[in-house]
């Protein structure tokens, strides 16, 4: 359907959905009711599974304004359908953020203290007459409410104060709180403020679980087997189904209980809200609505909603959201002010202003407040609209995982249904020829369907994932999305954050470089020298931070802690009692050790008030502008004792700080000096200061915007910090490279620093050439331009480090044109030069917008991405996924949340067992968890394939046995079915999944599809082999001389005997005649098929290179030995009791030896086919990769291109084009004469950007 003809909600967002309106249709409803009665309720069950058809078959399409039901379909690749009922509510208004319409007035009332008339009227959608009640139509989908907008004639998501609100409006229009009537009015739209995770009743869960297609098929099978007199087998399967349902209900209910307990802690708490300038009211948190102003107590609380700070500061623990245990300082949202120019009033956004926002579920540890005006926070979102509410929704309604294995498995099951149809047709024809009763014909044909389609297949395929999850838990790796474990087995590219991931969290102070009068001074090592005590450089280091004192210890960002510790200064914060004695917030003060302050009588006039606030200190921190990832800087406003003017200090990225400083204070060699230090891997922080004009008074500094302060600064110099690699980084990256998994660095640090760390950790080899990519946006009518520059050779690393890196690092891999060719054991000679592209966040943004054709090439060859904002990290992951990479992301869970969620495997290094930032969480704070996760993912993936092939062969083998017995009017017995399914299939299927992961990562990756030649050949060859042996044994037994003889009694020792001629005679309908089971054919096929089940399990149980060898799986070997021993006992030493139980015919001992010989031959052929044909790497390499290897130009060596080449084949055509985009592009680049770009050249966008029109 064309997009222009459909209506959408959440347009251009991640959860965009197409929406259609429907209304009940009487005649359609009557027809469906009739069909339900005629089908015995099956039609209703079918419509329950397919909501799309349930709506279309019972309703008629109508415009959305008249809809009683809406049909929703996601616009992503999954195209998920859902239906919701349209409801309505009566309210004295239609605007959720408006005000109630009182009977005596047509105008809405404004709350006390509201002076902005536009804030009161701007959101009214339609005026109401006196006392009129409006009908507001809405529907709720996944805990999100959508309201009908009459003017737009569309449904819109119910939003609150988190969208489209200027910062000034939050202060002036909403800072006075809400009247009780307004709160009640808004509550009608937003509901109670609670994340209500209802724990479903057992009856509800039972009905929902039983209606699963798996259990419906089980119930159908049990009914069919009961009608066929297989009571023992049917009752056993029914009992196991009840056990499975009970276990599933227990697990699901336990998850609901845990989630309910996690969110209920803050659902009902007591809070104080503002009702006007002088009125406060204590209410339950469930009463809060957007627009309420609540008071945050000094001792803190767990936030029941999302709120923005209007006054004061707060220390918050956000580990629940970000996974970081370091407390964060939240400051009041600045009030935009007009400073000699147009008013800059930004629109409030929770992500951009997160340093001013208290998020639901986070813990406020303590606050610092004003006397008479405590810390106030404006409620912006409630309930499931909050950050925690959205996370809970993502847990309750997880996004489907698109994995080819499950799609191919479903298609294969459809093929099995087709095979069953052929068998049913054969059975019907054969039964008609034998003149069997109609009822018997129907039962036998349907019985073939239950045999061919194994109902236990889904459970058996997930066993490997469950076992892998348990092994990961023992390694302190926890998963919120177990289904993603299989995806980890396909990872071929890993993105790593730098700070805290590849390098240590802590920083070592290395040195500093001051700048005076536009030039750099010699490098210094100790900032505690007496001559520097009063310098602005040291004052900036000591004052420009967001540290706070918790339980007597400094707490805050590790960088702030290290810089402050280097100064040796002391930080003091006033107590709550001291703060309450003053009109304004008591400042944090810093001073050198042993600093003596002048007595109050010695202080200059006018400073006595401030001196009281700063007693015992030298510099008071009056205001903070927190660090922002987008701005890449932070600043503070301070006042030094004895001075009248305020001083602002700023620190941040050198490029950012330098651009905000006066040119005369920035040395001419700024860039070259910066480059000299970043090349060495040092982290460089720039400092600047500004003496503020007298108009900036310390009493009013909190209302000044940071843009007015952070300008015309004086450059002070650089602080040099050393960020050491973690011990695990180099060997782990070397292991990933040997496994042909690309490693990419994505960091917010300086580009040259990132390149240096990339060289040190082995991402960039010692002979690698780095191509710096600088993309500039269009300006002055000129198109966007890319400048190419080759980075100079870096200084040689420490000999010891270099030696260790050569020993641990992987050898270079020569790029081959043919795809999926694993590197040989002995590596060929590598080119002297390899190329790695590096770019910054600004350049990446320009490439996204203006160079769509060039971007894939850079992504294919890019290794370093620096100065990347959090949203750019997410965009990078998405761009790599569009090139068909299977992307993993490993970060610390703070600024990497978006990328961690977007990647196929996001790994958060956190102390929590379950970080909501990513699907996987490692309590071990190093990247050592990455190979473990990939190994377990590969093992789980291979296990899923093994189990799938085994269950498929089980169905086909039993299908062949039953068809052959049907041809002589026979069948398998009740106990025989039970023994095969319970003792053989279940024990082998679940025990073969216990193989743990192989200890090494190999270059090969396991297949991701069931349509690969090797897998198809494996399944088909085993099917043909099983068919050959069963048909051969079936025909051979009928050619024996003793076949028509009458059966003799078998004693303890085997004797010759035979079944009577009428052993295969037709039975009467309604009972199972034992003679229809006991026959020579039945006994022969029973033994042959049982041995085949064991043999295919042994053949399909793969070990190396992805799993531990089969001999390490003790339970599986024990199952093999026990089942085989019991079968040998039945075959070679028959016991009358067991023969009667299994309904086996007494066959000659010579024939038993023949069956043993046939079984042994089957075993040998099965193992040979699987190990020397289907799973022979040398043979498949010769067949599929035997074409001539093309040489490539020496200057076009890109070691990162071949890392995705060692993958399972999907086609044996020697000239087949690779399926993945990055492999096709890699082949093209090998012979591109213009790639890589020449140094000191430029590339312009082909088409200048068109001018945008409003």
From TrEMBL:
<dbReference type="GO" id="GO:0015662">
    <property type="term" value="F:P-type ion transporter activity"/>
</dbReference>
<feature type="domain" description="P5B-type ATPase N-terminal">
    <location>
        <begin position="13"/>
        <end position="148"/>
    </location>
</feature>
<dbReference type="InterPro" id="IPR047821">
    <property type="entry name" value="P5B-type_ATPase"/>
</dbReference>
<comment type="function">
    <text>ATP-driven pump involved in endocytosis-dependent polyamine transport. Uses ATP as an energy source to transfer polyamine precursor putrescine from the endosomal compartment to the cytosol.</text>
</comment>
<dbReference type="GO" id="GO:0006874">
    <property type="term" value="P:intracellular calcium ion homeostasis"/>
</dbReference>
<dbReference type="GO" id="GO:0005524">
    <property type="term" value="F:ATP binding"/>
</dbReference>
<feature type="transmembrane region" description="Helical">
    <location>
        <begin position="409"/>
        <end position="428"/>
    </location>
</feature>
<dbReference type="GO" id="GO:0055038">
    <property type="term" value="C:recycling endosome membrane"/>
</dbReference>
<keyword id="KW-0472">Membrane</keyword>
<feature type="region of interest" description="Disordered">
    <location>
        <begin position="1053"/>
        <end position="1075"/>
    </location>
</feature>
<feature type="transmembrane region" description="Helical">
    <location>
        <begin position="448"/>
        <end position="468"/>
    </location>
</feature>
<feature type="compositionally biased region" description="Polar residues">
    <location>
        <begin position="1055"/>
        <end position="1065"/>
    </location>
</feature>
<keyword id="KW-0812">Transmembrane</keyword>
<keyword id="KW-0460">Magnesium</keyword>
<keyword id="KW-0067">ATP-binding</keyword>
<dbReference type="Pfam" id="PF12409">
    <property type="entry name" value="P5-ATPase"/>
</dbReference>
<dbReference type="Pfam" id="PF00689">
    <property type="entry name" value="Cation_ATPase_C"/>
</dbReference>
<feature type="transmembrane region" description="Helical">
    <location>
        <begin position="1113"/>
        <end position="1133"/>
    </location>
</feature>
<dbReference type="InterPro" id="IPR044492">
    <property type="entry name" value="P_typ_ATPase_HD_dom"/>
</dbReference>
<keyword id="KW-1278">Translocase</keyword>
<dbReference type="GO" id="GO:0031901">
    <property type="term" value="C:early endosome membrane"/>
</dbReference>
<dbReference type="InterPro" id="IPR023299">
    <property type="entry name" value="ATPase_P-typ_cyto_dom_N"/>
</dbReference>
<dbReference type="InterPro" id="IPR001757">
    <property type="entry name" value="P_typ_ATPase"/>
</dbReference>
<feature type="transmembrane region" description="Helical">
    <location>
        <begin position="945"/>
        <end position="969"/>
    </location>
</feature>
<feature type="region of interest" description="Disordered">
    <location>
        <begin position="1232"/>
        <end position="1254"/>
    </location>
</feature>
<keyword id="KW-0967">Endosome</keyword>
<feature type="transmembrane region" description="Helical">
    <location>
        <begin position="1083"/>
        <end position="1101"/>
    </location>
</feature>
<feature type="transmembrane region" description="Helical">
    <location>
        <begin position="233"/>
        <end position="252"/>
    </location>
</feature>
<dbReference type="InterPro" id="IPR006544">
    <property type="entry name" value="P-type_TPase_V"/>
</dbReference>
<feature type="transmembrane region" description="Helical">
    <location>
        <begin position="29"/>
        <end position="50"/>
    </location>
</feature>
<keyword id="KW-1133">Transmembrane helix</keyword>
<dbReference type="InterPro" id="IPR018303">
    <property type="entry name" value="ATPase_P-typ_P_site"/>
</dbReference>
<dbReference type="Pfam" id="PF00122">
    <property type="entry name" value="E1-E2_ATPase"/>
</dbReference>
<dbReference type="Pfam" id="PF13246">
    <property type="entry name" value="Cation_ATPase"/>
</dbReference>
<keyword id="KW-0547">Nucleotide-binding</keyword>
<dbReference type="GO" id="GO:0015594">
    <property type="term" value="F:ABC-type putrescine transporter activity"/>
</dbReference>
<feature type="domain" description="Cation-transporting P-type ATPase C-terminal">
    <location>
        <begin position="975"/>
        <end position="1165"/>
    </location>
</feature>
<dbReference type="InterPro" id="IPR059000">
    <property type="entry name" value="ATPase_P-type_domA"/>
</dbReference>
<dbReference type="GO" id="GO:0046872">
    <property type="term" value="F:metal ion binding"/>
</dbReference>
<keyword id="KW-0479">Metal-binding</keyword>
<feature type="transmembrane region" description="Helical">
    <location>
        <begin position="1153"/>
        <end position="1173"/>
    </location>
</feature>
<feature type="domain" description="P-type ATPase A">
    <location>
        <begin position="270"/>
        <end position="392"/>
    </location>
</feature>
């Amino acid at each position: 359907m064309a997009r222009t003809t459909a209506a959408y909600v959440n347009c251009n967002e991640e959860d965009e959905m197409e929406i259609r309106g429907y209304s009940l249709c009487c005649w359609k409803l009557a027809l469906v009711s009739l069909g339900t009665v005629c089908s015995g309720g099956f039609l209703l069950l079918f419509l329950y599974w397919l909501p799309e058809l349930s709506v279309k078959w019972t309703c008629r399409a109508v415009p959305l304004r008249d809809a009683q039901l809406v049909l929703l379909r996601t616009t992503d690749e999954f195209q998920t359908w859902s239906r919701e009922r349209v409801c309505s509510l009566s309210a004295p208004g239609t605007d959720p953020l408006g005000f109630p319409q009182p009977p005596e007035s047509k105008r809405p009332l404004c709350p006390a203290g509201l002076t902005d008339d536009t804030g009161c009227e701007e959101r009214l959608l339609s005026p109401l007459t006196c006392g009129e009640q409006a009908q507001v139509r809405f529907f709720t989908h996944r805990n999100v409410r959508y309201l009908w907008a009459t003017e737009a004639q569309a449904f819109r998501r119910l939003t609150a104060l988190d969208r489209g609100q200027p910062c000034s409006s939050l202060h002036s229009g909403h800072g006075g709180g809400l009247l009780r009537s307004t709160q009640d009015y808004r509550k009608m739209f937003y509901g109670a403020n609670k994340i209500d995770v209802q724990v479903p009743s057992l009856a509800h869960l039972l009905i929902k679980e039983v209606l699963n297609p798996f259990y419906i098929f089980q119930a159908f099978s049990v009914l069919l087997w009961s009608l066929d007199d297989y009571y023992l087998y049917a009752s056993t399967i029914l009992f196991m189904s009840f056990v499975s349902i009970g276990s599933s209900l227990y697990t699901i209910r336990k998850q609901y209980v845990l989630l309910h307990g996690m969110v209920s802690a803050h659902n009902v708490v007591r809070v104080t809200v503002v009702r006007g300038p002088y009125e406060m009211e204590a209410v339950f948190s469930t009463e809060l609505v957007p627009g309420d102003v609540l008071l945050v107590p000094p001792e803190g609380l767990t936030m029941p909603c999302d709120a923005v700070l209007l006054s004061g500061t707060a220390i918050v623990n956000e580990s629940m959201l970000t996974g970081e245990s370091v407390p964060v300082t939240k400051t009041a949202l600045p009030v935009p002010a007009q400073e000699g120019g147009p008013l800059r009033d930004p629109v409030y956004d929770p992500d951009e202003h997160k340093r001013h926002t208290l998020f639901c579920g986070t813990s406020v540890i303590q606050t610092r407040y004003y006397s008479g005006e405590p810390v106030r926070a404006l409620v912006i979102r409630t309930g499931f609209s909050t950050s925690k509410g959205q996370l809970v929704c993502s847990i309750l309604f997880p996004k489907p995982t698109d994995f080819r294995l499950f799609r191919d498995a479903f298609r294969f099951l459809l093929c099995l249904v087709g095979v069953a149809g052929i068998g049913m047709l054969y059975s019907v024809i054969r039964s008609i020829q034998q003149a069997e009763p109609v009822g018997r014909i129907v039962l036998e044909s349907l019985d073939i369907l239950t045999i061919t389609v194994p109902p236990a297949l889904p459970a058996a395929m997930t066993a490997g994932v469950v076992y892998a999850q348990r092994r990961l838990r023992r390694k302190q790796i926890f998963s919120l999305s177990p289904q993603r474990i299989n995806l980890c087995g396909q990872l071929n590219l890993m993105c790593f954050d730098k700070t805290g991931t590849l390098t240590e969290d802590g920083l070592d102070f290395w040195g500093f470089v001051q700048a005076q009068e536009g030039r750099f001074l010699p490098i210094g090592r100790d900032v505690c020298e007496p001559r520097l005590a009063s310098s602005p450089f040291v004052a900036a280091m000591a004052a420009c931070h967001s540290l706070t004192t918790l339980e007597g210890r400094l707490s805050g960002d590790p960088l702030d802690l290290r810089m402050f510790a280097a100064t040796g200064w002391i930080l003091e914060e006033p107590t709550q009692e001291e703060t309450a004695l003053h009109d304004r917030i008591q400042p944090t003060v810093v001073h050198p050790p042993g600093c003596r302050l002048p007595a109050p009588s010695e202080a200059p006039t006018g400073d006595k008030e401030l001196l009281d606030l700063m007693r015992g200190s030298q510099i008071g921190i009056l205001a903070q502008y927190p660090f922002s990832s987008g701005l890449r800087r932070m600043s503070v406003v301070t006042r030094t004792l004895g001075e009248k003017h305020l001083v602002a200090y700023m620190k941040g990225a050198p490029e950012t700080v330098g651009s905000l400083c006066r040119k005369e204070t920035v040395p001419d060699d700024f860039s070259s000096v910066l480059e000299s230090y970043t090349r060495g891997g040092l982290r460089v922080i720039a400092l600047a200061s500004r003496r503020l004009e007298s108009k900036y008074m310390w009493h009013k500094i909190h209302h000044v915007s940071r843009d007015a302060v952070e300008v015309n600064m004086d450059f002070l110099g650089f602080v040099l910090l050393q960020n050491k690699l973690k011990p695990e980084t180099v060997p782990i990256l070397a292991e990933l490279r040997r496994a042909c998994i690309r490693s990419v660095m994505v960091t917010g640090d300086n580009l040259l620093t990132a390149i240096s760390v990339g060289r040190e950790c082995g991402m960039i080899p010692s002979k690698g050439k780095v191509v710096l990519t600088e993309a500039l946006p269009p300006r002055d009518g000129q198109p966007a331009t890319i400048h190419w520059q080759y980075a100079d050779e870096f200084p040689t690393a420490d000999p010891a480090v270099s030696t260790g890196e050569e020993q641990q690092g992987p050898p270079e891999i020569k790029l081959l044109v043919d795809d999926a060719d694993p590197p040989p054991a002995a590596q060929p000679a590598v080119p002297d030069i390899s190329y790695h592209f590096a770019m910054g966040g600004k350049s990446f943004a320009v490439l996204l917008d203006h160079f769509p054709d060039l971007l894939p090439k850079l992504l294919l060859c890019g290794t370093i991405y620096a100065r990347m904002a959090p949203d750019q990290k997410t965009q990078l992951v998405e761009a790599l996924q569009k090139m068909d990479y299977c992307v993993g992301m490993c970060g610390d869970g703070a600024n990497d949340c978006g990328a961690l969620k977007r990647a196929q495997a996001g790994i958060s290094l956190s102390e929590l067992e379950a970080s909501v930032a990513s699907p996987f969480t490692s309590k071990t704070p190093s990247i050592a968890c990455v190979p473990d996760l990939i190994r377990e993912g590969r093992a789980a993936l291979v296990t899923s394939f093994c189990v799938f092939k085994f269950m498929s062969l089980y169905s086909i083998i039993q299908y062949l046995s039953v068809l052959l017995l049907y041809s002589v009017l026979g069948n398998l017995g009740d106990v025989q079915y039970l023994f095969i399914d319970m003792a053989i299939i279940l024990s082998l299927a679940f025990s073969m999944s216990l193989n743990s992961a192989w200890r090494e990562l190999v270059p090969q990756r396991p297949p991701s599809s069931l349509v690969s030649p090797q897998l198809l050949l494996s399944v088909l060859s085993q099917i043909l082999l099983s068919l050959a042996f069963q048909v051969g044994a079936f025909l051979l037994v009928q050619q024996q001389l003793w076949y028509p003889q009458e059966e003799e009694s078998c004693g303890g020792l085997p004797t010759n005997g035979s079944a009577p001629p009428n052993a295969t005679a037709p039975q009467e309908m309604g009972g199972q005649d034992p003679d229809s089971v006991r026959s020579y054919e039945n006994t022969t096929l029973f033994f042959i098929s049982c041995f085949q089940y064991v043999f295919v399990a042994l053949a399909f149980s793969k070990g190396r290179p992805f799993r531990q060898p089969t001999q390490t799986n003790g339970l599986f070997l024990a199952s093999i030995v026990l089942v085989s021993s019991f079968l040998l006992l039945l075959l070679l030493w028959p016991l009358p009791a067991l023969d009667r139980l299994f309904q086996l015919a007494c066959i000659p001992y010579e024939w038993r030896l023949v069956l043993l010989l046939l079984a042994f031959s089957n075993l040998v052929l099965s193992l040979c086919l699987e190990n020397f044909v289907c799973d022979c790497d040398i043979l498949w390499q010769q067949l599929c990769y035997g074409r001539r290897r093309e040489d490539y130009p020496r200057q076009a060596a890109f070691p990162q291109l071949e890392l995705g080449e060692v993958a399972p084949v999907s086609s044996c055509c020697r000239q087949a084009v690779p399926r993945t985009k990055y492999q096709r592009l890699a082949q093209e680049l090998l012979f591109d004469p213009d790639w890589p770009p020449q140094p000191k050249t430029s590339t312009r966008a082909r088409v200048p950007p068109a001018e945008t029109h409003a």
